[in-house]
Amino acid sequence: MDRAEKIVLGFSVGLLGVFFVALMLAARLASIDVPPCLPPEIKPFSEGRVDTLPDGSRRIFYVARMWRFEPEIVEVAVGKPTEIFLSTADVTHGLYVSWTNTNLMAIPGAVNAYTLRIDKPGVYPVICHEYCGSAHQNMVAYIVAK
Ligand code: CUA
Prior knowledge:
- The chain is built from one helix and ten strands, in the order H-E-E-E-E-E-E-E-E-E-E.
- It is α+β, with helices and mostly antiparallel strands.
- A hairpin with a 2-residue loop joins strand 2 (58-65) and strand 3 (68-70).
- It is elongated and about 65 Å long.
- The chain starts with a helix and ends with a strand.
């Protein structure tokens, strides 16, 4: 191996180290985490519903289907965690809660989850962000934070 190859190889390995450290720092500082494992009591579902937990927080089971979300309107308490579970009854959809970092994919046969906390009262549109057919743009639901 000649000197130029050794330099390039050393630079490449060093760069990988820099990327790894940057990734770890970003994950730590921005609290980036992989999606959690689902609790064992959460099974695939085909009907949307809302559960109220003993502490007053909500657990929303969204079902995306052409071309709506079930449930359509959900009230949540400001400052309390809201667990969102998402499934689809037909094709792949997306779920984005406007003005938050909640962004999930609804994939056939799978359940995706995220815990959202809204700190400001208001009406938050929930939209589909994955093209899912001719009325994709009509897929909207609402979270009302009080
Ligand atoms: Cu559902 Cu786009």
